[in-house]
Amino acid sequence: MTRDEARARDAADPLRGYRDRFALPDGVLYLDGNSLGPLPRDAAPALADMAGRQWGERLIRSWNEGWIDAPQRIGGKIAALIGADPDEVIVADSTSVNLFKLLVAALRHDPARHTIVSETGNFPTDLHIAEGAVGCVAGARLNAVARGAISAAIDGDTAVVLLTHVHYKTAERFDMASWTAAAHAAGALTLWDLSHSVGAVPVDLNAAGADLAVGCGYKYLNGGPGAPAFLFVARRLQERLASPLSGWMGHAAPFDFADAYQPASGMKRWLAGTPSMLAMAGLEAGVDLWRAVDQQAVATKSAALFDQFAAIGARLNLECASPANPERRGSHISFRHPQAYALCQALIARGVIGDFRDPDILRFGLTPLYLGFEDVWCAGSILADILTSGAFRDPAFAQRNAVT
Amino acid sequence: MTRDEARARDAADPLRGYRDRFALPDGVLYLDGNSLGPLPRDAAPALADMAGRQWGERLIRSWNEGWIDAPQRIGGKIAALIGADPDEVIVADSTSVNLFKLLVAALRHDPARHTIVSETGNFPTDLHIAEGAVGCVAGARLNAVARGAISAAIDGDTAVVLLTHVHYKTAERFDMASWTAAAHAAGALTLWDLSHSVGAVPVDLNAAGADLAVGCGYKYLNGGPGAPAFLFVARRLQERLASPLSGWMGHAAPFDFADAYQPASGMKRWLAGTPSMLAMAGLEAGVDLWRAVDQQAVATKSAALFDQFAAIGARLNLECASPANPERRGSHISFRHPQAYALCQALIARGVIGDFRDPDILRFGLTPLYLGFEDVWCAGSILADILTSGAFRDPAFAQRNAVT
């Protein structure tokens, strides 16, 4: 694709209007929206209103003027993006904390089942938290196996199958419906981590018959650094599972100040402590931006951006680690390269922000709302220049940052 | 105290300058800073910088430019307010979630001990979370007893004594040193909830020999609605306790993306998921305001404001539920009244914001940084007017809000 062809694609892009809704800095090609989504223009005034008016002027009264319902309200908006009903999703805590709640609850759901089945190389916090969860339920264990062995690992002892829908390194995507059916056939629940899926690929939890899910607010949802996460519990399970993190905000009547814990009905029981309203304001601005977006247009453009970037990689003899079939991947593209870290740093020095994942993955988030074909063309030509010139071999680029 | 006398006290108040550092709305006497502290003027530009520059312009690079260290940096600043060393405090999650982490860790600390001892009528989330924590450790139990029976309940089976330093209703304050000594004499750990203490009364965790503590960021620290909370672990215990919420941010090397969990050394192991930086920006602005404050001046003024309000209550024949001895209470005053809810609503309608705690407590936060003697004089005269006129008997004031 030539630069002119890329410009023509941008001009014809039905999502083109969304680009102006983000405050993208000059001189940066941002291909890291799958690690931290950029600032929606509406977020700044929303935060100013949250601080100045809601906190500053209305003070404690704001709890009765929209705050107390924020976790359910924003959850309902996210539900529309993942094929769930509004009363099946709530915003709370972090993805890690929500994984813990749901894994412990799932392990307690059927006393005859004791195992969490998951994948080695899953996003680390999923496995770390699974370790923590099995430590909290007598007899529980974690069985993490390679992807090819998951199917055989699901058996009559499996309480829950914990899978990340789109892999954070390779972008490989599980077929949610068929894996859910396989888990159900063995009597197990499924817990899907949607962190690299929501806002990236079509997700239909209820069509797939999914049981449980969690996901991140700060990637494709553009909810701000460390934005609150969400969790989904299928309605049929809502009264049968309870949170081990039995905090007051999940109590049936938090302002009765009773000594004994009584879980709220519905999704409110998954709340623990008091949620940050500053964080909620950022997340809601990001989520609101998605409300009118045509998800099919996002999927189509994501596939086209991927094809464009894959062709650039092929021309540069880079090994693509992501699946060729768009139905089997997320919305990022990864290449393997022995100097992936230095390459990533050299790109950043030229204004192309992607990221590195240990040990050899160079990863680019393809975010159709604000990324265009000309952006990918420019990133590709800078990547070509760095590879051909050998600029990435500068020792300065090998020096690791705290966060890679 | 006459209004003129109150004005004279304000004019001589060494903390008077702090009032201008808060954006207090006109027409409001805010006596609810112990439920939600008001907006520090510095918070609005701090949030604008966090959103516009750090998130918007620097994007993912900000993780290497101050974000990754924020939990420890802000924790270190809070440490100075509670008699801890900077490396003994970290900011993370909510008070509820932090209670869970520390209670489970404390229950696992000595396999011969199985009991959490706490107080009936403790702040609800402390007891609710303790219920959740004992559900996660085989053989563990919660023994919540009335204050007078706590001492006798601490025995050789006690793993941890969970006490809230200042009671959220009555403002009664435990003597931290003597209760810690009593717990230690029985071989138990102590876990102090400082939510109504930090920024309110002098706290010296290390002088008291305390083991563990948690606290809230959104009350006297003025960190914003639902601000992140903090936790303290005495250095001698730091390598012997680990979090059941074993998320990636608490890993020894989170960006190695290893499958197996390995807790970080020091306080970082108490992090779970990715913290919200918008929430952190609000909290840091609140905490920074405290850095130059003379804590002894705060205690002295708190006691004087209490005496002034107690005298008003006595004149109005209100039953004071808070201790007369300033060493034995926090920085709020509570009165019992059968129509406490309606009284609270009638006060709010006149611009005096205090709060109601079920069933009969009318509570006023006495926050020396921005509350003056004339404020208390005015609140008292409005309270007198409402009581004498019977205005609080209007049925509209009996109608409950979602959050009381």
Automatic annotation (TrEMBL), chains A, B:
Catalyzes the cleavage of L-kynurenine (L-Kyn) and L-3-hydroxykynurenine (L-3OHKyn) into anthranilic acid (AA) and 3-hydroxyanthranilic acid (3-OHAA), respectively. It catalyses: 3-hydroxy-L-kynurenine + H2O = 3-hydroxyanthranilate + L-alanine + H(+); L-kynurenine + H2O = anthranilate + L-alanine + H(+). Pathway: Cofactor biosynthesis; NAD(+) biosynthesis; quinolinate from L-kynurenine: step 2/3; Amino-acid degradation; L-kynurenine degradation; L-alanine and anthranilate from L-kynurenine: step 1/1. Pyridoxal 5'-phosphate binds at residues 95-96, 123-126, 164, 193, 196, 218, 248, 274. Its cofactor is pyridoxal 5'-phosphate. Its EC number is 3.7.1.3. This is Kynureninase. It is an enzyme of class 3 (hydrolase). Belongs to the kynureninase family. GO terms for molecular function: kynureninase activity. PANTHER family: KYNURENINASE. It comes from the Bacteria. Homodimer. HAMAP family: Kynureninase (MF_01970). The modification N6-(pyridoxal phosphate)lysine is found at residue 219. The keyword Transmembrane does not apply. Keywords: Hydrolase, Pyridine nucleotide biosynthesis, Pyridoxal phosphate.
